[in-house]
Amino acid sequence: MDTSTEAGTLRRRVLAATCVSYVIVLLDTSIVNVALSSLATAFDTHIAGLQWVVNAYTLMFASLLLTGGTLGDRWGARRVYLAGLLLFTLASVLCAAAQSLPALVLGRVIQGVGAALLVPCSLKLIHHANPDPARRARAIGLWAGLGGVALAMGPLVGGALIQWGGWRGVFLVNIPVCLFGIGMMCRPSGEAPRRPAERVDVQGQACAVVALGASIGVLIEGPVMGWTAPQVMAGAMLALSAWVGWGMIMRRHPHPMLPPSLFQNGIFTGSTCVSMASAFVFYGLLFVMSLHYQQARGYTPLQAGLALFPMMGMVAVGSMSARRVATRYGAKWSMIGAFSAYAAGAIGLHASMAGMAYASSIVPMLAVGMASGVISPMATAPALETVGAHRVGVAAAVLNAARQVGAALGVALFGAIVGTVHPYETGLRSALILVAAVSIAAMWPWCLALKPRHSA
């Protein structure tokens, strides 16, 4: 086999392995939402328990994402990618076999660790296997596009699996796909260059996990135990202390997990803010809307997946349309329009809650999905243009981590609202008002970031 044929085979194998793994990672961020009602029945739990099932995965994914990229640089992207995929496979088995809520949450934690290792290494492997910039761009576009389709299809696929095989099916489906990815990557293939001197910020990483975990824990357990309960107050103090400690480490550590210098650029800061705000709104809304359809309206998981499909499907459409929208209307007005669509969609859903037919919520859900799909790529492109080529990887990881943090906070806070404000419909309306308020407020960081700077 000649060199060009071997290189082509390597590219296809790497792309197949990384695409299927990324599909599973993003599928698991949305597929579990339609299993919420089944899990509540199986484990006799309420909103707080369901929030832990969703957020255990997102929390570890968000807090370890930057370190996963660093470990790939230090030990080799292929090696760390395989470790992450093996861990994800094992965790999926543990989730499917769970006999108690704590066991399921532990499995979700391990899934999040595996996802944080394999996602940044996937991009490094694609980058190394495709030295030609045009071919690399197509490969990354396919990788990201399939991820968007997986995210959109999650509730529908999950609903079908639960309808035909129970909630364990949403985890069992991961196993053959993960094994395929492992098989593709275990075969002889080129290794991306390593940087053995790359250091891991262990102190910063530990503080980040504690800070995020304690913050989310307070939001989840506050409505259950009471906001003034000693455990909740202690958790709040722990979160505050960990955040302060993390900030000090980021400023003083010679190799911090999150380089503060990235935020000296206003566009990068604005992109991070709108990425987090969009994930906060979208995933928080997905959580409470899933509960609404299954618990308030009595839909089956499959019916809930179908009901959510207009919103989820529009995410993929928005992602594919983002570049054209930004080119036609400009970065500023496109982003304002997207967040306005979020707000308008929330107001429309608020109106449709008053005993109206499901059809009245379709247009608002289309608006929400379109906004989510457009914002992510529209915020990413200008942010990556503000950093040097050697920092693109860490900059992309920061944006991804910001989205995951926003998602975890959205699920926790929206869940706290519907768990505190009764009846459920009133709590859901309050959450929708918050969606509109956050969407309007999120326009300002972007406008400030794009504001021309005049030299003295």
Structural class: mainly alpha
Q: CA-to-CA gap between the ends?
A: 63 Å
Residue share in β-strands: under 5%
Number of strands: 0
Q: Mean pLDDT across all residues, rounded?
A: 84
Outline the low-pLDDT stretches: none
Largest sheet: none
Cα shape: globular
User: Radius of gyration over alpha carbons?
Assistant: 21 Å
Spell the H/E element sequence. HHHHHHHHHHHHHHH
Helix content: over 70%
Provide a count of the helices.
15
Describe this structure in words.
This protein is an all-alpha fold and 456 residues long. Helices cover 82% and strands 0% of the residues. It has 15 helices and no strands. α3 (47-75) runs antiparallel to α14 (392-420) and α9 packs parallel to α14 (392-420). The longest helix is centred in the C-terminal third of the chain and has 52 residues, at 301-352. The radius of gyration is 21 Å and the shape is globular. The chain starts with a helix and ends in a 6-residue tail after the last helix.
